[in-house]
Specification:
This protein has one domain (3-228): NAD(P)-binding Rossmann-like Domain (Rossmann fold, 3-Layer(aba) Sandwich), CATH 3.40.50. Strands 3-2-1-4-5-6-7 form a 7-stranded parallel beta sheet, with helices on both faces. 45% of the residues lie in helices and 15% in strands. With 243 residues, it is of the alpha/beta class. Strand 4, helix 4 (96-124) and strand 5 form a beta-alpha-beta unit. It is built from 8 helices and 7 strands; from the N terminus they run E-H-E-H-E-H-E-H-E-H-E-H-H-H-E.
C-alpha cells in the first residue's frame, strides 16, 4: 500500500506492546527497515523473531535510555513516537509523581527523540517524517485524565513547533489522536460494559478503533502519499471530537 516505505529506516518507540507493536509489524510488511524501541526486552525479542526488525531495549524516561538509542542510531528516515503511559485518577486525587512521570515519558521523551532524530535527518540532508501518537484526550475533556491530557496536549503543541522549525529541512511532523484502540491491553481495560458504553455513547460511529485503523494513517503520514502534510493533529476517533 505504501511501497515508498520499502528500505526506509523507521524508528518506533513504545514498540514492546500496543499501537507501537502493531506499527512495527505493518512497517515490516511494507519492507521498511524498522528499529523497535521499548522497555521490555523479552517482548522486543519476540517481536524481532516475528518480523525481523532490529531492537533496542531502552527506558526513554531515563537519559541513559535516550543515550543508548542515540549511540546506536545511524541513518533514519522516519520516527513514530508511541511510548507512553496513562495513570488515571480524579483531578483532586492525582499524585504529583504520577503527573511528573506522564510528562517525562509522554512529553519529554517525545521531545528528545524528535530532537535526536531531527539532528540526524538534517545531517543526512534528505528530509524525513515524524509521527507523534497523541490521543483524543488532548482535544476533549475526559474524566480522570488531567495529567494524561496535559502530556498529550504537549505532544500536539510540540508537533506544531517542530513542523515550523523542521519544515525548511524537508522534515514533516504530524500527530495522530486515537480514541480507545482495541489492543490486547485495552480490551482488558475496557471490558466493563458500563464503562465502555459511556465512552461509546460519545463516539458517533459507535465503536472503538481497531489497531489497524490507527496504524494505517500513521503509515500514510510517514509515506510520500502525504508529502504536503505537516503540522496536522489528526483525530482517529470515529467522530468523538467533532461534537
Amino acid at each position: 500500500m505504501f511501497s515508498d516505505l520499502k528500505n526506509k529506516v523507521i524508528l518506533v518507540t513504545g514498540a514492546s506492546s500496543g499501537i507501537g507493536r502493531y506499527c512495527v509489524r505493518e512497517l515490516c510488511v511494507e519492507g521498511a527497515h524498522v528499529v523497535a524501541i521499548g522497555r521490555n526486552a523479552e517482548q522486543l525479542r519476540t517481536l524481532q523473531d516475528e518480523t525481523g526488525c532490529d531492537i533496542i531495549a531502552a527506558d526513554l524516561e531515563q537519559q541513559e535510555g535516550l543515550d543508548k538509542v542515540d549511540s546506536a542510531l545511524r541513518e533514519v528516515d522516519g520516527l513514530v513516537n508511541c511510548a507512553g503511559i496513562a495513570l488515571l485518577d480524579p483531578a483532586t486525587e492525582m499524585l504529583g509523581a504520577d503527573f511528573d512521570r506522564m510528562m517525562a515519558i509522554n512529553a519529554r521523551a517525545t521531545a528528545l527523540m524528535c530532537q535526536m532524530v531531527a539532528r540526524r535527518m538534517i545531517q543526512q540532508g534528505r528530509g524525513g517524517a515524524i509521527v507523534n501518537v497523541s490521543s483524543q484526550a488532548a482535544l476533549a475533556s475526559l474524566q480522570d485524565h488531567l495529567g494524561y491530557s496535559a502530556s498529550k496536549a504537549a505532544m500536539d503543541a510540540m508537533t506544531r513547533v517542530l513542523c515550523a522549525e523542521l519544515g525548511p529541512f524537508a522534515i514533516r511532523v504530524n500527530s495522530v489522536n486515537p480514541t480507545v484502540t482495541l489492543t490486547p491491553m485495552s480490551k482488558v481495560g475496557w471490558s466493563d460494559p458500563i464503562k465502555a458504553q459511556g465512552m461509546l455513547d460519545r463516539i458517533p460511529l459507535g465503536r472503538f478503533a481497531e489497531p489497524e485503523e490507527v496504524v494505517r494513517p500513521i503509515l500514510f503520514l510517514l509515506s510520500a502519499a502525504s508529502s504536503m502534510i505537516s503540522g496536522v493533529v489528526l483525530p482517529i476517533d470515529g467522530g468523538f471530537t467533532a461534537g
